[in-house]
């Protein structure tokens, strides 16, 4: 499968598993899992044809490890980034590293200085453990601005942090006082 086809299927999966399963009438359970056979069958109705083998390749090669299968590969879900409020990924709160990073672009800086980092339409604010990943995330919208989040201090102050299966750090809100540019 070529890179363009992998990217196309990955974007389609992100749309369905994170935001709009109703687009094809797909049912997600309360933890975000979708039946693989149902996903493949209902995707065909929208003109997206892929086999279980192609789906396995997308999951295995996705650079951000956005998706996971259950143990017997009969179910699939997005690891984080849901705008669906009914999804509970059953993540356990854990202690974060002292610093985490967030990639953004200059046009959002005024709002961030005033309100901090907000989850907006997603369930959580997404943070990276390294500057390289944050730079890659920020670059999607232009020239990146990398913010350092004093996550250790936030944790001490009572803020909860979670880590998704693919290593993305999640929290509900990052107040401006915990952000350094």
TrEMBL record:
It comes from the Bacteria. It holds the Pfam family PTS_2-RNA. InterPro entries: Ptrans_KptA/Tpt1, RNA_2'-PTrans_C, RNA_2'-PTrans_KptA, RNA_2'-PTrans_N. Gene3D superfamilies: 3.20.170.30, RNA 2'-phosphotransferase, Tpt1/KptA family, N-terminal domain. Its EC number is 2.7.1.-. SUPFAM superfamilies: ADP-ribosylation (SSF56399). Keywords: NAD, Transferase. Signal peptide: none annotated. GO terms for molecular function: NAD+ poly-ADP-ribosyltransferase activity; tRNA 2'-phosphotransferase activity. GO terms for biological process: tRNA splicing, via endonucleolytic cleavage and ligation. HAMAP family: KptA (MF_00299). Removes the 2'-phosphate from RNA via an intermediate in which the phosphate is ADP-ribosylated by NAD followed by a presumed transesterification to release the RNA and generate ADP-ribose 1''-2''-cyclic phosphate (APPR>P). May function as an ADP-ribosylase. Belongs to the KptA/TPT1 family. This is Probable RNA 2'-phosphotransferase. It comes from Tenacibaculum jejuense.
């Amino acid at each position: 499968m070529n890179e363009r086809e992998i990217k196309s299927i990955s974007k389609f999966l992100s749309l369905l598993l994170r935001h709009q399963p109703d687009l094809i009438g797909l049912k997600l359970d309360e933890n975000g899992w979708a039946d693989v056979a149902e996903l493949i069958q209902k995707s065909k109705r929208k003109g997206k044809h892929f086999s279980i083998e192609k789906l396995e390749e997308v999951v295995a090669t996705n650079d951000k490890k956005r998706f996971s299968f259950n143990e017997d590969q009969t179910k699939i879900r997005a690891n984080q980034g849901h705008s669906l409020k009914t999804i509970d990924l059953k993540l356990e709160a854990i202690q974060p590293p002292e610093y985490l990073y967030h990639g953004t672009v200059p046009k959002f800086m005024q709002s961030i200085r005033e309100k901090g980092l907000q989850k907006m339409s997603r369930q959580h604010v997404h943070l990276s453990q390294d500057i390289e990943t944050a730079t890659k995330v920020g670059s999607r919208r232009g020239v990146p601005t990398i913010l350092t989040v004093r996550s250790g201090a936030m944790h001490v102050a009572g803020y909860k942090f979670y880590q998704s299966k693919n290593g993305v750090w999640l929290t509900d809100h990052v107040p401006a006082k915990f952000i350094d540019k």
